[in-house]
Each structure stands twice: as structure tokens, then as C-alpha cells.
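Protein data sheet
==================
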Amino acid sequence: MSEEQYHSASHCKYLIQYHIIWCPKFRFSVLQGNVDIILKQILQKICNDYKYKIKALEVMPDHIHIFIDVPQTVAPCDVVRTLKSISAIELFKVFPKLKQVLCENVEYYGQEDIVSTV
């Protein structure tokens, strides 16, 4: 890794990157068309708000891959919870029919996700 890729804190340099994968509930293929486009915009806004830097983002019809660079103070479980919860709420606002198609409750994404360090 080159030196300019690292971030500086008061007494350290760090580079924390995660590859995160998650799916809609029941792995339904609903992340296509306008949903795909809006979801990318929502995830970009969340990452900007929380100071996460998206290195790569791919939305497939039945799952999402995101490769992000995060501050050293953020736990991986917090990153996943933030991305999944806020994006689900925002998608339901834009596409209320998704709620009817996928679930009776407020869960949009399945409970499983994968986080790996790079």
C-alpha cells in the first residue's frame, strides 16, 4: 500500500477497509431498475454523512456489494447496521410498494450479512 492511502489520527496511521455483502429479505430480486439507481444514491449519501469512502459499489438484483474505507473509530457491525437500516427506511419512502411485496414488518434486508477486511 502506498503511504498516501493511509489516514492519520493523533498518534497513528490507519487504513481500514471492509467488503460488505447483504441481501434483501428472502433474497428476492427487487434491486433492479429505478430501485438500483436510487439505492446507489442513498448509499452514497449515507457514506458522505458518516465519513465512509466508497471504493466500489455494485448492486445486483438480489444482493449488494460495497467496498468502503471507514474511520478507525467505527466497528464493522456499526457500519453494516447504519448502511442497512438507513437505506431500507429511505427505500421504503421512495418505493412504498416494496414494503408490501417483501414483508409485513419493517425489515427490508435479511438478517445475514458478510463483512471481510481487505
Notes: Residues 76-94 form the longest helix (19 residues). The chain has a mean pLDDT of 86. The first strand starts at residue 7 and ends at 8.
